[in-house]
Design goal:
Elements lengths: L2 H12 L5 E5 L5 H9 L4 E4 L2 H10 L5 E4 L8 H4 L5 E5 L2 H13 L4 E7 L12 H9 L9 E8 L7 H21 L5 E7 L6 H6 L4 E4 L1 H4 L7
Parallel strand pairs: 1-2, 1-8, 2-3, 3-4, 4-5, 5-6, 6-7
The structure holds pyridoxal-5'-phosphate.
The site of pyridoxal-5'-phosphate has 15 residues, from strand 8 and helix 9.
Length: 225
């Protein structure tokens, strides 16, 4: 894999859009992450807290680490010192735990709420009702050490580009609705995380601000994540 070249190509595709690249480095060794770093990439996404923590300790300190995978509440404490954005908050309980650990570290941690937009049963995420329940909760204002800055979603794994576009459109609609409706000092709506290697071009057209791209940069992964 020519990592530098891959990043240049993707960055080129993002030109003229509002989207930034999150380089998804899960399962990849530090040497390859450094190659991307030396090509100018500073934002990396991981889906396991332990792996992200180990990498953050070994790699340059100006890397922005994003958690994109399902989060176990009892592990939030390990990343609370350094994580810069959690894309995958999918419950009120998790939001509260992130707030608690952020408070302990005297930080405010940015979070995205993960929505279920795919047809598959297996993908994590909130329904629209569950999203509104969180945003309308009076207790939200007590959580002064988190900031909710947008939404994340994963489209169905399918060749049907029309289906993928429909799902991204629906996520973008929800994002825009919320943007015009909810205002609080811990809601600052500005990020819409959608698009992966196979569908980031569609996601950009539908308004993504963060594309999470792994295999198109680093090559395919050896085991399934
Ligand atoms: C692995 C992963 C990605 C990147 O997937 P690729 O198809 O390799 O680009 C994006 N988002 C999430 C949530 C992931 O787990």
């Amino acid at each position: 894999m020519d990592i530098k070249n891959n990043i240049a190509e993707i960055t080129n595709t993002l030109q003229g859009s509002n989207a930034r690249l999150v380089a998804v480095s899960k399962t990849k060794p530090n040497e390859l992450i450094l190659e991307a770093y030396n090509a100018g990439q500073r934002v990396f996404g991981e889906n396991k807290i332990q792996e992200m923590t180990d990498k953050s300790e070994a790699l340059p300190k100006d890397i922005e680490w994003h958690m994109i995978g399902h989060v176990q509440r009892n592990k939030v404490k390990y990343m609370a010192t350094f994580v810069s954005l959690i894309h995958s908050v999918d419950s009120w309980k998790l939001l509260k735990e992130v707030n608690k650990q952020a408070l302990k570290n005297d930080r405010v941690i940015d979070c995205l709420l993960q929505m279920h937009i795919a047809e598959e049963e297996t993908k994590f995420g909130l329904s629209k009702d569950e999203l509104l329940e969180i945003l309308e909760s009076p207790e939200l204002l007590d959580l002064q050490n988190i900031r909710i800055i947008g939404l994340m979603g994963m489209a169905t794994f399918t060749e049907d580009k029309g289906q993928i576009r429909k799902e991204f459109k629906s996520l973008a609609n929800t994002y825009n609705e919320v943007k015009s409706t909810y205002h609080a000092d811990n809601i600052e709506w500005k990020e819409l995380s959608m698009g992966m290697s196979g569908d980031y071009d569609i996601a950009i057209e539908e308004g993504s601000t963060l594309v999470r791209v792994g295999s198109s940069i680093f090559g395919s992964r050896n085991y399934n994540n």
